[in-house]
Specification:
mainly alpha; DNA polymerase, domain 1; hpI Integrase, Chain A; 3 strands; globular
Amino acid sequence: MSMLAPTLQAFFTDRLTRQRNASPHTVASYRDTLRLLLAFAQQQTGKQPCQLDLDDLDAPLIGAFLDHLEHERHNSIRTRNARLAAIRSLFHYAALEHPEHADTISRVLAIPPKRFERALITFLTEPEIDALLAAPDRHTWTGRRDHAMLLLAVQTGLRASELTALKRRDIHLGTGPHVSCLGKGRKQRITPLMKHTVAVLRVWSSERAGQPDDPLFPTRTGRTLSRDALQQRLAEHTSTAALACPSLAAKTISPHVLRHTAAMRLLHAGIDTSVIALWLGHEHVETTQIYLHADMALKEAALSRTTPPDTPPGRFQPPDKLLAFLQAL
């Protein structure tokens, strides 16, 4: 067995699990990346994965692997960069354990992420929100579940994984109603609930019944709803809603679009972006700036408050002697 195999095993068991206490999502993402990399390296070198060494995974091979992801597997640039981040994490760990391979490791770590164009985000208008929330058939159990779930998503901006992972105990409908979730990066987040959302969730929670640790929005068999199932239900309701609101037909609606919609509603209400960042669980406030770029109405409002370009320049004249004294200091 080569040096790479024990290094790779220690990377997962020691580095990610013990030292960094990485989430299951992070471990799964890194695992998938390195499985793809080892399979690609096997094709390129003819060696079995257990026979590969660190020097086999040099910068040219990693570069070829990234091109393979983008051009042959048709991964987006974001996915390509995420795969590169997992590889860089492994090589940072390898640099500490095997300094004798510093030359190979440094060349791999020097591979930069690829720049990409940031498209404007998609979000729903108020008529589109109303049409989507009216789409589920509330005469059925699944319709009532979906209505409560979509309403909660639009109001709170929870991620798809956070929404499907909710337990009955995570919803607090008494004084100071709120929903509690464990978000990205294992950050605990509490989001307040509006009166209408509380009323809908109270009815659904009563119908749902069960134990505190049971899923809040389960399948018919009581299991946790998967992300694919959530996307499927959302697609079905979007198709129904598009009959009443045709503008929905031109949009690709995903659970993340509902998250964007919650952010834009807060922005339209005049909430500061730093508060929106806390609401959404963004690690950096800069991430929330995308919503400022996406909303043309805010830009037009800012433009209307600017001075017309043909206005002659003026000089400030204090209207009061005391103000004139302070101005002259």
